[in-house]
Amino acid sequence: TVSVVESQSIPAENGLNVDLTIDAGYQKILETELLDGVQKFMARSASGIIMNPNTGEILALANYPDYDPREFSAADDEARRNRILTDTYEPGSTIKPLIIAALLNEGIVKEDNVIFAENGSYKFNRTRITDVHPYGNLTVHDVLVNSSNIGMAKLSTKMDDNSFYKYLRDFGFGNRTLINLPGETEGTLKR
Predict the structure, then answer these.
(1) Which terminus of the chain is more solvent-facing, meaning fewer CB atoms within 10 Å of its CB: N or C?
(2) Does residue 11 sit in helix, strand or coil?
């Protein structure tokens, strides 16, 4: 028997709504692929997201190693941490379309401008930049299509540092997404 003293009870208040967009099929595929990748490359961890690019809806989100949420207290903090939200990482080639967009928007380049991609190897300052395939001349369009690191390195120098920083900040780098998930960090964007 449970007895309640009404004068000491606090009535419940409505909270926020939660709309789940996770697709169980995609979630299983993502978790399987992460596990396979960790085993194949002998990695310590892996993270992945499947998102609808038209709406931004997250269809699957997973980290490995993971834990059984039914046994939350049995997992340590490291296993429970959602690295997708808490860890910062280099954006890699996903940043290339944003750089091209900024350059096009500023009128600094046109899609048919030609960049010499140094046949696959280029020394930039004190760093050797390579492409997976050796390219010669590429248009700005082809730099993006072929994901040329050398072409992007050359193109990125065409914009001054302050403008480059402003565009990346405006694209959301260094900001939180405000998706209401706990632990999200804003990332690092250096001037």
Answers:
(1) N
(2) coil
